[in-house]
Design brief:
3 helices; about 90 residues; five-stranded mixed sheet; alpha+beta; Ubiquitin-like (UB roll)
Length: about 90
Amino acid sequence: MSPVTVSLPFALRAKAGHRASVPVVAQTVREVIDALDQEFPGLRFHLCYETGELRPFVNVFVEREHIRSLQGLDTPVSPGATVHILASVAGG
């Protein structure tokens, strides 16, 4: 199975070995997060609540499609796809 590329926001890069992107083998966005947490323990906490649901300030796109308008965490990812994880920024 070919990996997908996960693009990480700057705020999470320190938790992922200062990498802007990482390859993972996964078939859904949920499996992407599982793989990230396995490789970088504790990363899931920054993306999801303890219930497993995505935190509201975390936005995930498979290619250019927001997963909230697709199948959420169960959105399939194709081999070679890019999954973009973005964190909302607030302030004034």
